Structure formats: C-alpha cells, structure tokens
C-alpha cells in the first residue's frame, strides 16, 4: 500500500517534468543549441559556404591579439557607463526627489518617460543622426546661445563620437530605469519611512537607509537589462556612425555582423560572439552579486 | 571543505567532457560546417550567338536601379517574345551579403548583378566565362573595352586564351568633381582646373572666401571615392588594376599611393575638405551641396539628376585633374553589370540578353535612367551637367583611364577604407601606416 503510493507520487513528479517539456524543448532548440553551435563554429576557419577548416583556438587568439577587436570591447565597456550607470544614477536621484510625495498624473509621466524605450532603436538612431548633424538641432541650439564655435558634426568628431552615441543610449535607457525604480518605490512599506522619520532621519538618511536597500531588486534588473543592451548593442551604432570615425565607436556586435556577413569569417565572428557572451554573463553575475538579488 | 572540493571536481569533469567533445567533433568530418561545392556545368559560354527556339525563362537577381532593369527587361522581351526574364530585386546589403550563398546554391539565378565577391566566385568556377560571347557578338565595338576589362577578375579565359570576362555592363558610372559655378565665381574661380595644383589653388581661394571648399560624405563611401580619385592621378593605372584584381604580388604601398594619401591628409589639414565630412553621409553631403553649401562636391554621376534639378545651369562637372595638364584623364568608375551563373541551363538566352544591353535601344533606356551609356553615339546628345559628365567620361575612356572602385580589392576593404580615410581626414594616422594596414586587409583576402 505504502509502496504503491510512493511510486504514484514519483510518477506524479515525472508528470510534472512533462509539463515543462514543451517550454524546455523550445528553449533548447532556439537558445541553447544555437549558442553551442556558435561555440562550435568558433573553432573553425569557415567562410559560411565552402568546407570549413578546424583551427582550434586560433580564432580566440586573434580576438585577444587584434587591436581593432580589443578596441571594440573597450568601447562597449565605456558605453556601459552611458547606457547603464548614468541612467541608473539619474533614476535614483529622481526617485529620491519624488519618493514619499503624493503624485498626480503619474501615468502621464510614465508614458512620456517610457517613450524612448518604445521607439525602435533604428528610428532613434536616424533621428539622433540628424540632431547631431552639421546643421542639426544640437548645433542650432549651440549657435542660438552664442556657442557656434563649439558646434561640429558630432558623430564625425574623433573625440566626441563615442560620448555622442553614449548619450543617445543614456536617453533611451533613462526612462526605463526611472520607471523601474519608481514602481519599486511604490512597493515600499510606508511604515518604514514613518519609522525612519520618528528616529529623526532627514531626507538623505531616509533615501540611503530605506529607499536604496529596498530597491536592490529593481536596481539589479535595471543594471542587468541596460548592461546587456550596452554590450550586445548593434543597431544604434550601425545606424548612427557605423563604428566611425576611425574605430572610435566600433562595438563587438558591429564587428560580429561584418565579420560573419561581409567578410565571410564566420569562425572569428563566432569566437568574438562567445567572448562577448562570456563578458556579458560575467558582468551580469557581478551586478547580481553586488545587489544581492541572487540570494 | 567537502563543499569547496565539489565544484572543483565538477569543473574538472566539465573540462574533460568538453575536451572529449571537441576531439570527437574534430575527428568527425561530417560535422565540419559547409560543404565542398564543385561548380557544375560549363565554365565558359559557347562562342555562337544563336537564340534558342523554345520558351525559356531566365531568372535575374539584382540590387541597383529597379526601374531601369524593368524597362530593359520589357524591351528585351518585346524583341525576344519566347524568352521571359523574371527580375528579382534585393536590397543592397541583402544582395551583397547573400551573393556567395546564392551563386553557389543549386537554385542560383541565371543572371546576377556583378558585385564585390564575384571575382572570387568566378575563380571558383561558379560564374560563366563570357569571353567567347565578347568575340562572337563583338561587344568591344559597343561597350568601351576598358569597361569590359574591369570584369575579368584578373583571370585568363580557358576558351579563348585571352582575358576572361565575367559580366556585361548595362550602363556605366564614374566619380568626379561637381562645381557650383555661382559660388565658384564668388571665390574668383572662373573655370575647371587643368591640373591638381590649379585645383588646390581653387580650393584655397574658396576657403579664403569663407566658403566650404570641397564637400565629401566620408561617413560612408565618399571618403574612399576621394582617396581613389587622388590615387588615380599618381599611381600607375596598371599597378592599381592588378591590386584591385588581387594579382599575386600587387601592393598599394607604392610611392605614388603614398603621394596621393599624403595629399589627402594635407587637404584635411589645410581645411580644403568640409570639416563635417566625417560626420556626413554621401546623401547628406549631396543635399547640402545642392542647398548651396560647398563650392565643389566629390561624388559620382549617379547624383547628377538630383543636383541638376536644384542647381540647374549653375552646376558643372569635371573629372579629377591630373598632375600635368597634358597627362591622361583617369577616373574611378564601374559598370552596372550582369554575370551569368555557370549553373544556368540557358547560356544562349542569357547571352542574347547581355547582347541586348549593348543595343542602341538599351543604350537609350540606360541614358534615360541616369547611367552613362556604353555607346554615347547611340543616344541623343546630353545637355548641361550631363554633357560635362559625358565629355569627362569620353576623355577617360579615350585615355584608357577608367579604374574600378578600391573596395573591389577585398570583401573587407569597404569598411577598412571608410574608417581609414576618416582617420586620414582627421590627421589621426600617418599616410604610410594607413597604406600598410590597407595592404594587410588585401593580403588577408589574397594570401596566395
């Protein structure tokens, strides 16, 4: 009797796995297997058509040695500052100012803030290319306030291009970060603020001791999403500068595309993709560890 | 303690497993990506010019000038009612990226627009050698031979023993310098320059007058057009052609190329080139020139229609002048050409289509759509800036001075030159280093 019940519950447990199977199959077929295949292809010298040649880790050696590829990785790390750190800091400041206040018409604000996130990145890129152009709105504004000398074709300037692209990214991510943080603040138990106030905490103390720790989960999500966008990004750079001037704004995503599709070096492109993937995972793991979200 | 050891053992097992997997995969030939494709079918076209009797359908893939292709197809079908041509348009990036796969697949189109990469496909036998047709149809009489010589991929024909031929142009292109005559007059410039030195004086005069001297769209391909235009004046044309064709031992690290590259850097330094060039695309730089910003513009004949609509009689055109007034006219240009797949079942019908492209009727259609006709005598004499362009092209053809665009030298060359010229214009790289890295890109594509 007891035995039968035991085997029945085991069967039930297996039936549980059965329910996961469709999702698991899709995940394996469309996420895990392609990733493994990419890793496998990275060990070949292959043009995408004719027979590939096994080269072992030679492609990875080239990723490390080639100055252009290294440069691209550094650029994307710099972009993390713009896509991720800057918007989160801005979001925190705004949240600190808004937290604890009754807000009217928040839905309207949210809509406006999230708008950059809703517009396709290609459209965002084209629009900003015009704004940054020689006769664009940015230069017109500078001229209007008597700073014509500062004006330039921003995306074509060796010193300004990466910052210009980064600021577009900051513009895109800021809304998302603020949205996440604001909704997180809404979840915080008001009694915590009350208690802090009773203990004589000022607004800054309140922010550091109550708001910030309570927002750890939201911060982890915001940092993760924007870091991935910065590191794996392709569309924004492709549309605005195509990696130029020189290699000032070249990012790994752009090089992977070029290597695989226009230069026919699928192996090297895959190796760069694997390295980029590992880099993203490492950074995301670090973010999660710091925020304690994994616990 | 036990806890710390477990991940370690697991990692060891993982590494061993991965190594085993890698060994197994390397050993297993069947898992190697790609396939060793042998090009089937004939590699050379027959030398007869007969058009088949039966109903034939030709599939054609292309990426440029859809209205012109439609017009040419319609005119061809009217003349050969039993041959149907099915054009299939792809966007430029799709076309170039998929060209290798398309032409090596069993469903390769009969006709395909010639593009970067076609030379390698031809060398591998996937493109039909048309040298037999060139002789049989007498194409040299109706197309400038220099434009056919660009389509040889540097190979010798197995059929005729002479140069191979892997495409037939339907319309030609050429780059050069547009001038806004009204602005030029304001800067005291009264006519096209006879030499490069004179052109530099005019650029300096334009700058002194507070105008933008030379507009270039170096955000994309405009920079390499300027570099090529200067190369044409100081590099031996045959050396350059060998380099673009990937002939073994060819190099761009020559004194002539160095002089041209240093001139480009000097133009950037002296403010001859638009300060905003690196941040301006070709389309945008053309639009700004049309709005009256810029005395000169470096671009191709494809921009003439758009510019003439706005600037009218103020617009002029001349090929980049040489170092000496008596020297030959050398300009970059290429044919909008079609190649034939070696998998085609209808080489005779494809040959008839290509020959139609050289007919007077086709030349008129080509000229109407803004391309340079292969045979200028077959079309009504052009006027305005179009006359300037036709005259410049006639001179370059007469001097055997049409050279292919430098990005044809290797698949990776377009991106390398775009970013390289941006660095030259911003004075961020030494001319010699730029040439060395350019040659490195070339060597990667032509290791032999």
- Number of extended strands of chain B: 11
- Compute the CA-based radius of gyration of chain A: 24 Å
Helical segment count of chain A:
13
Query: Helix/strand-derived class of chain B?
Result: alpha/beta
What is the CATH architecture term of the largest domain in chain B? 3-Layer(aba) Sandwich
Outline of chain A, from the CA principal axes? flat
Note the beta-strand portion of chain A: under 5%
Strand order of the largest sheet of chain A: 1-2
Determine the N-to-C terminus distance of chain A: 41 Å
* Helix amount of chain A: over 70%
Distance, first to last CA of chain B: 58 Å
Q: What features would you highlight for this structure?
A:
heterodimer; A: 295 residues; mainly alpha; MetI-like fold; two-stranded antiparallel ribbon; 13 helices; 75% helix; flat; B: 448 residues; alpha/beta; D-Maltodextrin-Binding Protein, domain 2; 2 domains; 5-stranded mixed beta sheet; 4-stranded mixed beta sheet; 18 helices; globular; disordered N terminus
How would you characterize the overall build of this protein?
The complex is a heterodimer of chains A (295) and B (448). In chain A, 75% of the residues lie in helices and 1% in strands. In chain A, strand 1 and strand 2 (53-54) form a beta hairpin. In chain A, strands 1-2 form a two-stranded antiparallel ribbon. Chain A has a single domain (42-291), classed as MetI-like fold (Orthogonal Bundle), CATH 1.10.3720. In chain A, helix 3 packs parallel to helix 7 and helix 12 packs antiparallel against helix 13. With 295 residues, chain A is mainly α. Chain B has 448 residues and is an alpha/beta fold. Chain B has two domains: 56-173 and 334-378, D-Maltodextrin-Binding Protein, domain 2 (3-Layer(aba) Sandwich), CATH 3.40.190; 175-332 and 404-445, Periplasmic binding protein-like II (D-Maltodextrin-Binding Protein, domain 2). Helices cover 46% and strands 11% of the residues of chain B. In chain B, the strands form three sheets. In chain B, strands 2-1-3-10-4 form a five-stranded mixed sheet. A four-stranded mixed sheet of chain B has the order 6-7-5-8. Chain B has a two-stranded parallel sheet with strand order 9-11. In chain B, strand 1, helix 2 (66-79) and strand 2 form a beta-alpha-beta unit. The longest helix of chain B has 26 residues, at 2-27. Chain B starts with a helix and ends with a helix. The model of chain B is unreliable at 1-8 (pLDDT under 50). Chain A binds chain B through residues 40-41, 43-44, 46-52, 54, 132-135, 152-158, 161, 241-247, 250, 258, 261-264, 266, and chain B through 22, 25-26, 31-37, 96-97, 100-101, 104, 218-220, 275-280, 284, 288, 411-412, 414-415, 418-420, 422-423, 426, 428-429. Chain B: Residues 1-29 form the signal peptide. Chain B: This is Extracellular solute-binding protein. Chain B: Keywords: Signal. Chain B: InterPro entries: Bact_solute-bd_prot1 (IPR050490), SBP (IPR006059). Chain B: It comes from Streptomyces hainanensis.
């Amino acid at each position: 009797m007891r035995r039968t019940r035991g085997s029945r519950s085991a069967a039930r447990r297996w039936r549980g796995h059965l329910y996961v199977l469709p999702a698991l199959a899709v995940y394996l077929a469309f996420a895990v297997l392609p990733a493994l295949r990419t890793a496998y292809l990275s060990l070949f010298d292959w043009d995408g058509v004719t027979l590939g040649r096994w080269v072992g880790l030679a492609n990875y050696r080239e990723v490390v040695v080639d100055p252009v590829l290294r440069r691209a990785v550094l650029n994307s790390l710099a972009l993390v500052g713009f896509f991720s750190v800057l918007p989160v800091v801005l979001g925190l400041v705004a949240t600190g100012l808004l937290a604890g206040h009754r807000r009217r018409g928040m839905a309207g604000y949210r809509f406006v803030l999230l708008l950059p996130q809703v517009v396709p990145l290609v459209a965002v890129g084209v629009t900003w290319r015009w704004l940054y152009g020689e006769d664009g709105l940015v230069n017109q504004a500078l001229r209007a306030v008597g700073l014509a000398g500062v004006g330039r074709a921003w995306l074509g300037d060796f010193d300004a291009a990466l910052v210009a692209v980064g600021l577009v990214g900051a513009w895109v991510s800021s809304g998302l970060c603020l949205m996440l943080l604001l909704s997180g603040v809404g979840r915080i138990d008001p009694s915590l603020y009350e208690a802090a106030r009773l203990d004589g905490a000022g607004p800054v103390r309140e922010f550091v001791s109550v708001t910030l720790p309570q927002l750890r989960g939201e911060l982890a999500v915001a940092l993760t999403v924007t870091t991935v966008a910065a590191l794996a990004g392709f569309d924004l750079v492709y549309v605005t500068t195509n990696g130029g001037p020189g290699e000032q704004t070249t990012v790994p995503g752009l090089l992977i595309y070029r290597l695989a599709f226009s230069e026919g070096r699928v192996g090297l492109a895959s190796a760069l993709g694997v390295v980029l993937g590992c880099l993203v995972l490492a950074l995301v793991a670090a973010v999660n560890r710091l925020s304690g979200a994994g616990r | 303690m036990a806890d710390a050891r477990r991940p370690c053992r697991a990692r060891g097992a993982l590494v061993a497993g991965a190594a085993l997997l890698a060994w197994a995969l390397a050993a297993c030939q069947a898992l190697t990506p790609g396939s060793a494709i042998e090009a089937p079918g004939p590699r050379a076209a027959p030398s007869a010019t007969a058009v088949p009797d039966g109903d034939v359908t030709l599939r054609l893939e292309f990426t440029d000038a859809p209205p012109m292709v439609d017009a040419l197809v319609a005119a061809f079908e009217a003349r050969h009612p039993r041959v149907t041509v099915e054009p299939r348009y792809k966007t430029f990036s799709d076309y170039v990226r998929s060209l290798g796969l398309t032409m090596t697949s069993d469903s390769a189109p009969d006709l395909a627009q010639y593009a970067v990469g076609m030379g390698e496909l031809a060398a591998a036998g996937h493109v039909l050698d048309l040298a037999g047709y060139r002789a049989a149809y007498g194409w040299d009489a109706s197309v400038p031979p220099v434009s056919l010589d660009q389509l040889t991929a540097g190979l010798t024909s197995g059929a005729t023993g002479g140069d191979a031929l892997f495409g037939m142009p339907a319309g030609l292109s050429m780059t050069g310098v547009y001038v806004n005559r009204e602005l030029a007059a304001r800067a005291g410039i009264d006519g096209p320059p006879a030499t490069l030195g004179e052109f530099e004086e005019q650029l300096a005069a334009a700058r002194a007058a507070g105008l933008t001297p030379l507009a270039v769209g170096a955000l994309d391909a405009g920079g390499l057009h300027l570099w090529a235009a200067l190369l044409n004046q100081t590099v031996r044309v045959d050396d350059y052609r060998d380099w673009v064709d990937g002939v073994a031992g060819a190099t761009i690290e020559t004194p002539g190329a160095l002089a041209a590259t240093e001139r480009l850097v000097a133009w950037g330094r002296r403010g001859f080139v638009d300060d905003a060039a690196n941040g301006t695309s070709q389309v945008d730089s053309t639009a700004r020139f049309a709005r009256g910003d810029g005395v000169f513009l470096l671009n191709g004949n494809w921009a003439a229609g758009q510019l003439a609509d706005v600037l009218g009689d103020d617009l002029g055109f001349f090929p980049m002048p040489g170092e000496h007034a008596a020297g030959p006219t050398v300009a970059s240009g290429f044919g909008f050409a079609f190649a034939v797949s070696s998998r085609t079942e209808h080489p005779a019908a494809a040959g008839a289509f290509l020959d139609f492209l050289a007919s007077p009727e086709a030349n008129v259609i080509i000229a109407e759509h803004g391309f340079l006709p292969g045979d200028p005598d077959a079309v009504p004499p052009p006027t305005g800036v179009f006359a300037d362009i036709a005259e410049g092209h006639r001179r370059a053809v007469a001097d055997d001075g049409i050279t292919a665009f430098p990005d044809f030298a290797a698949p990776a060359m377009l991106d390398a030159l775009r970013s390289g010229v941006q660095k030259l214009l911003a004075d961020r790289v030494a001319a010699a280093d730029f040439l060395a890295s350019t040659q490195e890109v070339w060597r990667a594509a032509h290791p032999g």
